[in-house]
């Protein structure tokens, strides 16, 4: 190798290494900065965005929320490259497993990849709770398996039973090359929105129990599944951190508003988000520390807390009759989650 070529390689390494390998670099700590080159795609570039996430098509009048990029404090994120992603995962299967926040991220990734190769043939198939997006030229399948609790819900004699110690659907996850799990959103639902009638913990069946305790027990069941089933040489495992909602403006220090409705800017305070750690995030991190096989936490909670402006609000599925401060507009915040996923995968 000539001296000039060697120097070029060294320069590349020096420039590229700090992107995610700063001596104290934590890609999940940073701030949102305005970037005129964003978003990474437009809603019109992605014809399969579901209605509840397509805020621009649903009439959202502002656009500033699309122009923010996540900037880690001590390093830079590599810009998402859909072509690079598809090359790396050629012939492989990717699966998101979880609730509608997992769906949000799955839709984001399919849009990012379609924007990178807009002429590439694809198929989109939905059968029951499984959606599969396939880039045929690359042999890449990106799947979403709807499973809001990760553990099983079965029909019993007296109603639906949430079984905290059972993961029958885990058969579907075996052998997948990249798994991204998520659960939390449905754990606090009650009344008509609660999709189960009883909860079973080992041999004890109850009408209800402490939801945070139930959440932790389900996570530990999932952790045992990972320990017993996942081959780290074949499968990479990620867990999407808890996605926060913005239903109470007191959480971000504003007593004048009630929800995310009408919010058009992130929380930009140097002190960060006024609220403390999300209780579900604390439980999740505790469980993940006990997992003996490699699981990467996609730690999106704190950075997403700052994006009170990123929800569909009145421009989601329910329109002006409802206010969705839980899910996220696309393009939007889940694109950053996938940028972080991409950074974690390539480094």
UniProtKB/TrEMBL annotation:
Keyword field: Membrane, Signal, Signal-anchor, Transmembrane, Transmembrane helix
An example Gene Ontology CC term for this record: membrane
Claim: Signal is one of the keywords in the record: yes
Trichome birefringence-like N-terminal domain span: 24-76
Domain Trichome birefringence-like C-terminal: 77-343
InterPro entries xrefs: TBL, TBL_C, TBL_N
GO molecular function list: O-acetyltransferase activity
UniProt keyword annotation of Lipid biosynthesis present: no
Predominant subcellular localization, coarse grouping: membrane
Signal peptide span: 1-22
Localization: Membrane
Topology class, membrane: Single-pass membrane protein
Region (Disordered): 255-275
Pfam families found in the cross-reference section: PC-Esterase, PMR5N
Family: Belongs to the PC-esterase family. TBL subfamily.
Protein name from the UniProt record: Protein trichome birefringence-like 43
The species this protein was found in: Theobroma cacao (Cacao)
